[in-house]
Design goal:
Blueprint (H helix, E strand, L loop, with lengths): L1 H22 L16 E2 L2 E2 L4 H9 L4 E3 L8 E8 L2 E9 L6 E11 L2 H19 L3 E2 L5 E4 L3 E9 L5 E9 L16 E7 L7 E3 L11 E6 L5 E7 L5 E8 L5 E8 L4 E9 L5 E9 L5 E8 L2 E4 L5 E12 L5 E13 L4
Antiparallel strand pairs: 1-2, 3-4, 4-5, 5-6, 6-10, 7-8, 8-9, 9-10, 11-12, 11-22, 13-14, 14-15, 15-16, 16-17, 17-18, 18-19, 19-21, 20-21, 21-22
Length: about 350
Amino acid sequence: MRRFLISLSFIIYHFSFSYAQFVTGIEHQYKGPQDSRCIDIMGVPLEGPDSVFVPAIESIGFERVVSEDDEPNTYYFRGDYYGIKANLVIEADEKTKLLSTALVTSGPYRTFALFDRNNRYFLLKLQRQYGNFEAKGDGSLHTMTNVGYIKISNTLHEDKSRTIKVFYLNTTPYYKDAVNMGLKGAVQEVITENPVAENGIEHFDPQGKSTGTDLIDRVYSPTGYLLSAAMLEPTGAKSLIDFEYDESNRLIKRTLINTKENIRSVNEYTYNDDDEIKQQTQKVFDAKNECIMSITMKNNYTSHDDEGNWIKNDLKLMYWEKNRQPQNMNVTQTRTISYWEED
């Protein structure tokens, strides 16, 4: 009887140790910059160059593994995926060097019970963040959100063991220059009739960066938001620009300072429930910090395209300049927008 109890205790201990290896590992919490406009893995935004995503992945407990046989533009890691031992492979785009896809593999699991338990556990974690997954004909489950694609599947090996795979594909641009204008999707070109607070024509590259030459010395955040820049004046002097964002990474303030004339221009933005710019105010201050000009622009969007971007706007504009009578005017704006997906 005593030998039986000892054997039973050993079995329970051995099972508990094995189960802990796969289920009760430490789930590290990411404390770096986050972006709701990007798909993420355990809080880490899956975007940007390796100087951004490698330390971010390492901060949640993954260890990078480097060997001579590594494929180019491919990064290998080992760590805990939601507390379970797993491997992570990240691929970067060959041309841009920006993160393209991420693949998590966990296993192989020798018993179906352990595979099934952990597979359900991963699915539960993902569903809590991204909603329900749909079944595909090959037995995998997937979801397509407005920020990316996720697929969870498994591979059955010859020895009947199984490996769980979770695939991530980010579908949003890394640079948020278009987003700062309230634009959604992979916008390539915007042509605005009757522009007021924007250029008549704006172009963006496939990564979301404005290709205009008016801004120089750009500094971006790790998640691709413009933090500061400069603008060359006709005199050759530089005007300095700073950008401020709210907790949802929406642009709320843009400050331009003409260092030669000591004139400051401040733009402030408020948004509607669809993250569109509802109102924009611009105030210009002289060297004595006195407001010498103020413009308030209230938008009323009356038509949108399939991507959710406005293509018709009834703009109400209120203009005031020092020592002059205020003016009110209504401007009807229309936009033609093209997207990189159309190419």
